Recover the amino acids of this structure.
């Protein structure tokens, strides 16, 4: 919101190439607002403004940007600046970037990473597309099962700056098997000499690395959690997937549902970024299918040809009947898609759904 208010001033400073007040104006802004500003600037100005940011702020802003703006910056920045960005990005955001850019760019970016980070990036990219494994971050707080509360708090103080979240900590044994989870709240209110095991939830909710991300959204929502521990194929702790990443998945899922509700093949690009030809191709298959189905209405009307010729006034009501049928169908589609999205019904319930909607219609 603040970015929109300052946008005209920022454009004027860019036109005048008055960079010192521009930097002073940008520095106090939240990273998300700066990202919004960059996304509305001309391509030539994006890199100019981005270079005015401090290194720490630049990484935060870069993670907030859409893929198109990220690619613009990767092409315009120096190699060492790109290397710093890729190294310092959170692991889950970096994986998202690497899986979206062209393969050749992905290979180049991976080569910029240190060997340890390169191994992590390659491992995550090898998990199935749309799986939880693509969203995992290994930056979580791991505590030993034999620690005391005091030892746990000391470790959190030392490592907190590098972790995705510290509000939920994960208790592991020496083999890195997950034994339980403990919240920061329970750690803070417990005596320092109390064994960690006594305040640990020993029955944590977990997800497997191969689980579809949409299923993980349902798990997170059902148990009202901030993050989910992810286990690899050997049952060892691989990392966590956080609330914000799964909400991005939920948003994309909602977008696809809205497309289907409107009888359009789901797309990935923003409204103005999508080419007209692609938009037409997404719409035409459904329109043809609906046209074939609506031909049934013509057959019904043909059976009443004599009646319509006799009482011409009946034709005045045809648009009303047609519109009512369309409205009824839209209501049914909306209710069924919502029920599918929330898990109230499943594909196996198709016949029950049809009977119910036919009766309602």
């Amino acid at each position: 919101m603040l970015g929109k208010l300052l946008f005209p001033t920022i454009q004027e400073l860019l036109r005048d190439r008055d960079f010192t007040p521009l930097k002073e104006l940008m520095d106090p802004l939240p990273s998300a607002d700066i990202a919004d500003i960059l996304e509305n600037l001309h391509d030539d100005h994006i890199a100019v403004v981005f270079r005015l940011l401090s290194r720490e702020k630049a990484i935060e802003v870069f993670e907030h940007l859409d893929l198109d703006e990220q690619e613009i910056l990767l092409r315009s920045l120096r190699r060492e600046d790109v290397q710093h960005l890729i190294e310092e990005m959170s692991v889950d955001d970096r994986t998202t970037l690497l899986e979206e850019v062209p393969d050749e760019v992905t290979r180049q970016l991976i080569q910029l990473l240190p060997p340890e980070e390169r191994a992590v990036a390659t491992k995550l990219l090898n998990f199935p597309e749309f799986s939880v494994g693509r969203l995992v971050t290994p930056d979580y707080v791991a505590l030993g099962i034999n620690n005391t509360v005091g030892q746990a708090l000391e470790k959190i103080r030392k490592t907190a700056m590098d972790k995705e979240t510290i509000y939920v900590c994960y208790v592991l044994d020496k083999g890195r098997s997950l034994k339980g989870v403990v919240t920061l709240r329970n750690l803070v209110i417990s005596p320092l000499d109390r064994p960690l095991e006594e305040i640990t939830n020993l029955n944590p909710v977990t997800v497997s690395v191969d689980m579809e991300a949409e299923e993980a959204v349902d798990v997170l929502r059902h148990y009202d959690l901030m993050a989910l521990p992810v286990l690899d194929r050997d049952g060892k702790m691989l990392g966590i997937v956080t609330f914000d990443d799964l909400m991005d998945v939920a948003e994309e899922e909602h977008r696809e549902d809205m497309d289907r509700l409107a009888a359009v093949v789901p797309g990935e690009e923003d409204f103005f970024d999508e080419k007209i030809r692609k938009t037409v191709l997404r719409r035409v298959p459904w329109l043809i299918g609906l046209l074939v189905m609506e031909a049934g209405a013509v057959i019904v009307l043909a059976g009443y040809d004599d009646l319509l010729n006799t009482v011409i006034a009946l034709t005045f009501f045809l648009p009303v009947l047609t519109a009512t049928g369309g409205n009824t169908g839209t209501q049914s589609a909306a209710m069924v898609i919502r029920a599918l999205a929330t898990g109230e019904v499943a594909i196996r319930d198709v016949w029950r759904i049809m009977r119910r909607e036919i009766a309602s219609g």
Notes: The mean pLDDT is 85. The longest strand covers residues 178-183. The first helix runs from residue 2 to 15.
